[in-house]
Amino acid sequence: FMPNGELVAANQLRIMPGNNGKGVFLEEGSENLVSKSSSGSFEDMSEFMPLSKTGLKVVDDPQTGNSGINPPTNGPWSHCLRITTPGDKTGEGFELKLPCARGCVSFFMRGKGKLRLRVFNLTHYTPGKPEYITLSDQWRRYEIDSVPTWSDDSDLRLRVETASKQAVTFLVDGFQMEPKTYATSWMPGGTKRPVETIVYPLPQAMKDMPQGTMCLWVQPKWTSRTAPMVRDLNGKKPRSREFVYSANYAPHIYW
């Protein structure tokens, strides 16, 4: 899946706008700890709990026919949750039971109203730091990387609730919890994404050269994570190179 929820066919490159037209999107490995049903298919709603008299219903997105940006109608994004609050009091919405783990929780929403997002540890009655957001009529992704103190017996819940008395309706989909402090592209619940690698076959003329230089543009999507590894596979002993980038620097690979 692309960062915006768009589905890409299996074993196909994820293409995004690049420095010279288009570029290949590569991503680190991760996993979605949320169950398959709760992450987006919604066959089993037992992990969702309405708050007060809030209504929860599995529907198609009336704006696009499905819930994602450009996903297929028969894929994991073919349905979403419609949340309807009566507006009788503050704190109407829903809770989602989360796996007992520390990580970043992310999900997509669309609608109107002002909401409060947070993760609760019901076992030890410790709430995480709340996030206040104003919904958009376009699908947007939200993430919470502040998970409260937890232990093996913790009962963690994601709570999405109104920040004041509001009778609002909004859509939500694409739940994900990762063992990281930040969110990566969505994947179906209970699945893992391996570390992505791309191999570029060099022309024979370059392979025959005893030494040379190759240049490429890289646009990092992080602030302080480990740099990717570039490996020269030409020869009996693969050699590795790490490169460091700045905003206007094109990394060079030497051999």
Strand content: 25-35%
What is the count of helical runs?
A: 2
Radius of gyration: 22 Å
Largest sheet: 6 strands, antiparallel
Question: Distance N terminus to C terminus?
Answer: 34 Å
Helix-strand category: mainly beta
Report on the architecture of this protein:
4% of the residues lie in helices and 35% in strands. The protein has 255 residues and is mostly beta strands. Strands 4, 7, 9, 10, 11 and 13 form a six-stranded antiparallel sheet that branches. A hairpin with a 4-residue loop joins strand 9 and strand 10. The longest helix is centred in the first third of the chain and has 6 residues, at 36-41. Residues 66-76 and 223-255 have low confidence and may be disordered.
Sequence-ordered SSE layout with sheet pairings:
Elements: E1 15-18, E2 21-24, E3 30-31, H1 36-41, E4 48-51, E5 55-59, E6 80-84, E7 93-97, E8 104-111, E9 114-121, E10 126-127, E11 131-134, E12 140-144, E13 156-162, E14 169-178, E15 192-193, H2 204-207, E16 213-215, E17 229-232, E18 239-242, E19 252-254
Antiparallel strand pairs: 1-2, 3-15, 4-7, 5-6, 6-14, 7-13, 8-12, 8-14, 9-10, 9-11, 9-13, 16-19, 17-18
Question: What key phrases describe this protein's structure?
Answer:
mainly beta
